[in-house]
Design brief:
159 residues; elongated; membrane; alpha+beta
């Protein structure tokens, strides 16, 4: 019976501490990575006007459909590119034959995006990542405090 309690304790610790901390770290990593990529594209990218020619549909597990505009544009060296803009999701279909300003990477024209400030989404992702890590640390401290071990978080007495 004691072995069952140990496994339950380990499982609970993993679920309440390790998973939230890993999820939070991943959110922070991908948020910062996304911000650096957007910044790099803004620095080296070429601005052009593209035309929406289609919509790419993605459905999630709840059945909700998200539409991404498929655009065509001509690069500065004359190549015709057709790509989906993953930076412009919508719950409604995008109008075809509509011009849209985009920015693309000259080294990889299939990597195109709508210009604009994406810092808000990055900040939200980083804040949620910090909240997940904070939850994991509080859970870790609570588990250790209730198990009779010394608290992980210092109480201010550093002597």
């Amino acid at each position: 019976m004691n072995d069952d309690y140990d496994w339950l304790s380990i499982f609970g610790t993993v679920m309440l501490v390790v998973l939230p901390v890993l999820a939070g770290a991943a959110m922070i990593f991908f948020g910062i990575r996304s911000w650096f990529r957007a910044r790099r594209l803004a620095e080296i990218g070429t601005h052009v006007t593209a035309t929406v020619v289609d919509n790419q549909e993605h459905s999630n597990s709840d059945g909700q459909i998200t539409y991404y505009p498929v655009v065509t544009f001509r690069t500065t060296d004359g190549r015709e590119i057709k790509t989906a803009l993953n930076s412009s999701p919508s719950n409604t279909s995008h109008l075809t034959d509509k011009p849209i300003g985009i920015i693309y990477d000259p080294a990889d024209p299939d990597h195109a995006s709508t210009p604009g400030n994406r810092i808000a989404g990055t900040i939200v992702m980083i804040i949620f990542g910090l909240l997940f890590i904070g939850f994991g640390l509080v859970a870790f401290n609570t588990i250790h405090a209730t198990s009779g071990a010394d608290s992980f978080v210092p109480d201010g007495d550093w002597s």
